[in-house]
Each structure stands twice: as C-alpha cells, then as structure tokens.
Amino acid sequence: MKNKTFLVTGGTAGIGYQVASELKALGANVLITGRNNAKLDNVSGELGVSAYHCDSGKPEDIQALADTLKKQDVTLDGVVLNAGVFFPKPIGEVNVDDFGHTFAVNTFGPYLTLQALLPLMKNPSSVVFVSSVVVEKAFPGTAVYTASKAALEGMAGILNLELAPRGIRVNSVRPGVTLTEIQSKAGLSEDQIEALAKDMETTPIGRALKAGDISGSVAFLLSDASLAMRNASVTVDGGVRL
Fold this sequence. Notes:
The protein is of the alpha/beta class.
C-alpha cells in the first residue's frame, strides 16, 4: 500500500475516517471528501491527508472534485465509495423525497463519482462500495435504505464487466450494525442507540461493531492481495445474520 493513492468519500467520520486512518498508517497517500469544511480541516490536520469538499448527493460537486483532482495531476490506485445516509422510517411514514435523497447519496452518488474519476484511475486499480448487511438481513424501517444499497451492489457486476479492460475491479463490503455518527444523524436518541447496542450483545461477537472492525476488509480489497476478486461482497457483521 506504500506510496499508493486512495480516495475515500465521506472520510471525516465513522467507517470512512477509520479507513482513511488505516490506509495512512499503511503508508498510502490518502484523499478524503466530505460536506463539512471544519471537519475536513480537522481530519486533514489530524491524519495528514488531503481533504476536498464534496457532497456526494450533488452531481455538480462530484464533477468539480474530479476537475480539481485532474488539474492537480492526481492518479488513483483505488476509490472507497463510502459516503451515505440512513433515515429509517416505517412504510406509513415514507414519502417520495425519502427515496430521492437516499438514492441520490447512496446509489447515484457512488456511480457518478466513479464515472467522473475514471480518467484518473490506474491500471490496475480497485473500487470498494461500502454497502450494508441490510441486503442480506431484514430490519424494520429500512426499506428505502436497503433498496439503495441493493441497487448499488446490483451495479457492481456490470461495472466489473465494463471496466475489466482497464484493469479496474469492483467489490463491496457489507458492514453489520456499526456504531458511528450515522445513528444520531438518523434521529435516534441516546436511549435508542444504547438499546441497539444492547441488542447486539446477543450476536456471536457479543457487541455492536466499531468502525475499526470494518476498515481492515476495505484495506484488503484495495490491496494487491485482492487482484483476482471481482464482484465479491464481503460481509463483516459480527454474526448478526446467524
């Protein structure tokens, strides 16, 4: 991984932050994106990574990011498409705007980001979709989120076929219930988050996951050790499906 260059979307917190930190520790050059400029500045200084403002739900931001990187002569050994949103609601409360916003960030965003960055990608290079265990295990209130992640993974096979001549491979990681900022951003109270963590004590790992439980699998899929992997979906869930 030393001296390779990777971009991580949504790199200011949670899984994205941990992936960026781990890649940096392995000697890689790391670029992160995010929406909050203050957080971008803090993480850039803390980890020694390059930070770029980009809202993954806005195509104009994605294109501006690609244009900036091209002007800076950046070439990429891999991209981690991690930025995402999660707003759980039961069917009686879901509206069309929930679908629009969730798919804009979780599905269209990764696809359009990869599309825009293709001219910068090396041969070989790796793309990692950060998906979710929800595509395998049903959780009440997550229909919109689940659909967005299933659609994301559904594109991976086609992308592998289309990008194979360029040496680009696409694989996915499916995190289980991982305690990050995403729960509070989704509107869960502290009591609800504590209850969620308590529920996870019944899983084989005996706890909810941490971002550090996920980052190693992402790093592996970016490494040359995964060169033969195409369209794999690596589930890291602590056994919650069992």
